[in-house]
Amino acid sequence: MKITQKYINDLAYKIVGCAIEVHKHLGPGLLESVYEKCLLQELKEQGLSVRSQVQIPIYYKNTLLKNDLKLDILVNDLIIIELKAVEIMIPVFKAQLLSYLKLTGKPKGLLINFHTENITKQLVSLVTEEFAKLPK
Questions:
Q1: In the 8-state DSSP scheme, what is residue 85?
Q2: Among 124, 44, 40, 42, CA closest to 89
């Protein structure tokens, strides 16, 4: 399978659909960890390859540092999902996702907040230079 911008965007669309499905069943007000477990299950049911709490290596001046930096969910080894269950989305959440994308070299990330009435209204979708290099 050839990885294209369209493939990644279609995959992101499917992921958002899974998040909407979880939100429809659970609603807002639960812990992030609950939404993560349910979203993982939903993504797997859709036939997607998922990993959770993926350790992100950090190199500082060519030295690998021991760290506890972990991203929430990685789908098909392409899209990072950063989950939140917060009343107010603050700019540092977007910066966090951008850092994860930069450190991993993944082409796309989704910031999803479950503490809302409508998932898509607070959804943040970010792409990287790696995404821009892919064929359309």
A1: -
A2: 124
Three-state secondary structure call for residue 2 = coil
Q: What is the pLDDT of residues 68-122, one digit of tens each?
A: 789 999 999 999 999 999 999 999 999 999 999 999 999 999 999 999 999 999 9
Q: What are phi and psi of 50, to 5 degrees?
A: -130, 145
> How many structural domains does the chain have?
1
The parent domain of residue 113 ranges over: 5-133
What is the rounded CA–CA span in Å between residue 78 and residue 91? 23
Cα–Cα dist 118/41, whole Å: 21
Q: What do you get for the CA distance between the two ends of the chain, in Å?
A: 14
List pLDDT tens digits, range 16-52: 999 999 999 999 999 999 999 999 999 999 999 999 9
Which residue's structure tokens are 């990072």? Answer: 80
